[in-house]
Amino acid sequence: MTYGLTRLIRTEDDWSDLLCFLAELDSEPLRSALCLGPGAITVQREAYVKAHGGAPAGRADFVIRLDGAARAVMEMKLGAGAHGEQFASYDAWADVEGVPVADRYLVGPNRDHIPDGPSGWSRRLTIAELLGGWGGSGDDLARLLSGRALQQLVALEAEASGPANRASGPLSDALRLRRLASLARAAAPAGTVFAVRQRSRSGAANICAWRETPDGYVVAEIQRLVPRRGTESPFEIRIMVETPEATAAANGALADRQEAWLARHSFVRYAGPVVQGLVAKPDAEGFKTRKSGRRGHPRYYGYEGGGHGSSVVLHDHVDLNDMVTAYAATLNYLTTYQA
């Protein structure tokens, strides 16, 4: 049953559906967790919410009603960050419905920072604490399911901290990067700016940070490789430069001028032997290829109209602490850039 449950709850929506099902089996643990009074509890999943006055509509993960009246709204965030204006929509609706700010819950697997999460929403509850409430349920199925799901959540958290090549799926990688972002923010050099969105343009989980320079920006991005692009590693760091014009030609020209600084071996030499042991092929340049012809400039990693630079592929066995060490070194390396 454990393996089957693992197959059933793989995504953020799956975990939300499970909590909804548990509340239908026995609503009392939810009543206790949300401090609700007497009355009939109903849970709306993917509830359509729209306030009057032109506020945008949205779909909240959960709306909890007591005797038909909205009493709480809950948004689950396992690995993803906030997107668009979703919380503005929920707040506008909740204000009209009379749901207090204290009863608007942003729920994650732990209390790590959630990118672009609303500052006023409660982080009092975690998914693990909610699941644990059904441990004493009078419903046998609810008690069994919650216990097995809690075991799976603990395993996901362990995967997020352990060797990268032992992760069972994208969700544990997303949890790893969220924890990494939280730790990296705390130790980043002054002047480092972190992107709100923790997804690359291809949709892979990533963390992107940058610093302003006289030329534009220097960028350090760590991302999950999807697909792994011929490597055995799930993760790479990219060190890039970007101009204010943000055109491929301008970015490529700046990268040509900073080729020596961008090279993988230059970063590894700066970072020292500990980081060197975490990087695959630490003596390589880290560029795609070199163009043919007299000038022979590199072909860079990066994005059309975005940063251009090198790839620092991490060994597949690195754990969370190793990744924190490597990414922190990269953020410090950005401070050595010379225009």
Structure description:
The chain is an alpha+beta fold. Helices cover 37% and strands 20% of the residues. The strands form three sheets. The protein has a six-stranded antiparallel beta sheet. Strands 1-2-3-4 form a four-stranded mixed beta sheet. Strand 1 and strand 2 (58-66) form a beta hairpin. Helix 7 packs across helix 12. The longest helix has 22 residues, at 140-161. The protein is elongated and about 75 Å long. The model has no long low-confidence stretch (mean pLDDT 88).
Secondary structure blueprint with pairings:
Layout: H1 2-8, H2 12-25, H3 28-34, E1 41-49, E2 58-66, E3 69-76, H4 86-97, E4 104-107, H5 127-132, H6 140-161, H7 170-187, E5 193-194, E6 206-213, E7 216-224, E8 235-242, H8 248-257, H9 259-262, H10 264-271, H11 273-276, E9 289-290, E10 298-299, E11 301-302, E12 308-313, H12 320-334
Parallel strand pairs: 3-4
Antiparallel strand pairs: 1-2, 2-3, 5-6, 6-7, 7-8, 8-12, 9-10, 11-12
Helix pairs in contact: 2-6, 6-7, 7-12
